[in-house]
Structure prediction request, 1119 residues.
Amino acid sequence: MAETFILIPGRTSKQGTSLNEGKYTDGYLEEINTVQIAGDDMQRLGLIDGDSVRIWNDVGEIVVACKTARGDELPSGMLFISYGDKSSQLMGGETHGSGMPDSKGMDVFLEKHSGSSNS
Amino acid sequence: MSTLRISGGTVYDPRNGIDGEVRELWIRDGKIIDPPDDPDVRPDRTLDATGLVIMPGGVDMHCHIAGPKVNTARKMMPDDKRVAPPVRRTALTRSGSTGAVPSTFATGYLYAGLGYTTAFDAAIPPLTARHAHEELDDTPIIDKGFYVLMGNNHYVMKKLQAGEPQLLKAYVAWLLNATKGYAAKLVNPGGVEVWKATGGNATGIDDNVEHFDVSPRQIISGVSQAVTELGLPHPVHIHCNNLGMPGNWTTTLETMKSLDGHRGHLTHVQFHSYGGNVDDQSTFCSQVPELADYINQHQDLTVDVGQVMFSETTSMTGDGPLGYFLHKVTGRKWFSADTEMEAGCGIVPITYKSKSTVHALQWAIGLEWYLLVNDPWRIAMSTDHPNGGSFLAYPEIIALLMDRSRREEVLNRVPAAVRDRCTLGDLDREYTLNEIAIITRAAPARMLGLDHKGHLGVGADADITIYSRNDDIQRMFEIPRYVLHKGNVVVDDGEVRSNEKGTLLHVAPQYDVAAVPDIQEWFEQFYTIRFRNYPVDESYLHDHRIVPTNPMQ
Amino acid sequence: MSTLESSTSTNAAGELKIVEDATCTFCGCVCDDMELTVEDNRITKAKNACVLGKAWFFNHHIEDRPEATIEGKPASYEEAIEAAAEILLNATYPITYGLSDTTCEAQRKALAITDWIGGIVDTTTSVCHGPSGMAFQGVGEVTCSLGEIKNRADFLIFWGGNPAESHPRHFTKYSLMPKGEFVPKGRKDRTAVLIDVRKTKSAKAADIFLQLKPRSDFELAWALRGLAKGIDIDPKVEQKTGIPLDTLRDMMDRMKAAQFGAILFGMGLTMTRGKHINSEAVLSLARDMNQHTRWVAKPMRGHGNVTGADNVVSWTTGYPFGVNLGRGYPRFNPGEFTTSDVLARQEADAALIIASDPMSNFSQPARDHLRSIKSVVLDPKLSETAKVATVAFTTATYGINTPGTVYRMDDVPIPLRPAFESPYRSDLEILKAIEHRIREHQLAGVQ
Prediction:
């Protein structure tokens, strides 16, 4: 059952540090291939940390692992992912005359994915 | 060594007492040399200037062409740039944009195209001196340098408050060395600090600057004392308090008096010569006669004008509270940036309209200055580019000064009140070509202490502008026939033919190194960069020349 | 350019080197107080560095990669320069992109190349605070150097950013914690507010956290502007923003009572719907507050020298980013000449990419096009973009291996003191060589 969420791609210090180690290190890849979900949303969707979820919009579709957001960092209805290849797959080319594509606050659908997250 | 002879031209070289004589000029290694005694010696090349007018290259002693404030003004005004004629790339030269604040390459080409071969940026915060050098490195052809903002510097104010003139003097010299700057500049001394701290301003030269407990008067006299003792080639360069305010002429007069016999240069003095009441626009009027009188009687003082021309331009200033004032008056977009421990900055686009009584009076007040200072050696042409208008307006100003009927024509179309509130309509004086050569090159070079600029005597830099005579004076000065920089033809009939780098001019005054620990201790407490990363090293200077100082013993 | 000698000391064996006052160029803070210990061409200690800085210094060691590749195969430097010049000379609509992670000296060369070939030049600004740059062109900006905040600010609003993770030393060195001339008690003299859609790690550092609903930054800023001017605000603002009007009123009272306030805003504003309009609202709010007391605003710029890139592009062309030199003079139009658009519309036919990885972070249509055209890529590390390059150069890392100039997020220029030499060439040297080759071709054509 797909639900709508607002996806916020952003920076984390882990993304920043692992970026320096290299974009092909496990640390960086894990960081950019994991979506954070609020605890109550995880519960409602029957997800546990490490489960695969499918996220899509009219631009693209990704399959990534999920984990519960720390404490009250994320309100219900919102997703967070570190910037990277996966978040970019959901970004359209339209910039509304600004040069900047919508890269935060994107409307997406999410559902549990039974296969592997192929990350 | 190849030699160049320029023959047949009519030379105006006021510093050497040559007022329109047909003479030969000989050039070698970028310098003017004596013509050979032996008439059989032939030059390697001859440039035939028969019928043409020859002057030294122009010297702009007060403009804004580099550094953070200038660059921000470029970024801020795409609307202005989009409709301005661009500078196109050629096989030899780079492209650029113009408008009120041209890009760096365009700035160099435009100055050269106008026959100007030297220009000084008038207001660089020391913390961003490195930025100014980078831009000047990308400003081709002209020789250049900049003045360093000191009038709201915390260390300056602290040393004044503590009564430590020796440390103040050492700091002024240290700072000029650290920045590779040319002169000490005061902008609204003390007033910018009041703005940074409270949003207010200093209203006169005896206001107290809280926390530092000093007055603008103390800053002016303290820094001018230091500059005098250091023997800098250019005296303290002052942008007075209360710029633009009706009634500000008394502040200007007090500032002149506060110098108390020290040399001093009052810049864009047009903006500081207003009578009237701040609260009543209709009282706004000229007080130039009174101020020019004071200048005429005091040999140690010089001015540049800061002429206002009717145009779209961008006001940019180290005078932070002035930027806020202009924003409130015009309602237009406003940039303000305060630099830690040192300075402020304000940028607001402005349109000077001939239909505005105030703007037309500002225009007239500038011209009054040129016409009321008796000795042309103590007044320099400037628009305070781009504040009063672009440096590209200089030919038009020259025409206004040389032709009274052109002034009349403008006076007849501006609001009638202008004639009543200034003396311009009564002034018959018309400048000669020789006097124009003084206020556009010889005098500013002398005020700057540049012995090798602004004249064509033996040993001078071979920076030469050659004009075709034209009954239309403005046209004559707009498109020189040839411009030479260091003996090379850089402009030929309006076409820029060079992409060479000019020379960076700076000073390196001696100072007491025992003062450095005190400076460093203060610095490390308050700045956000490391002390060692502050000074600009010589690698930033490309071709440069240290202009000597003459310290008092 | 800066060729500062590194102040170093070496032990008896000559293996250990200390570099003082070195500069970290990872984020826009550009902290210049690093003390680096260098052993055997490796930085082993980075005193004063934050977690990101340490990762930056410790991981930029020399990797064993070819100096240059053409079509993925190792090539000599000379062949690669020739191939790069040829690609750029033969292109009809080339684009130069990246530039925020290299020195100003290299940026100036990239500008020269783009000018000579009549291409587009754009920087990572266009996908970072480009919208804030547009906002500044609309309404101006009241701002200051970071030292002003350190020395004066008693009220701080962090908005749409997470400095604890993106600019870790901002709090301690520039804004929240330091003791300053007019705030002698440091943190105790300051009030800090965080406004964000997520309760990030930065929330712990703030006195007040306002959790904003996504995509309502504009409405919040506009409501605060109204309150600043004494205009009645519809209480329904709470439904939109998630923040009660009374909270906003209280906040405005505090803002007016401050001596010196600063709004430090992040990409939460520029990357969300509204973009430059969001930044414009926040810049306007800070400006309006000057009717009451001193306020400033400042975008939290990202990459080490993105601010330098803005400056270099501006002084060279008159415009900050997204500049088309194709007609022989500069034209500026975000949305038309910005990289995302030029690539997503499949317009550019060649690319020169310097120290940036658009193949990892651009929109899908832009990436698809970039993959299909010829490109010249300069990067110290292997990246998705370097992988698809026609000609790729491995470069020395700025600040670690090369000297030069970098502008901090507040436009303060800072010199670099390299720690050790790289076997690879600098961006500057490579770009100089490409420019030289291009000029040889062009001037031969003239004569």
Observations:
- Chains A and B do not touch (no CB pair under 8 Å).
- Residues 3-113 of chain A form a domain with the Barwin-like endoglucanases fold (CATH 2.40.40.20).
- Chain A has one domain: 3-113.
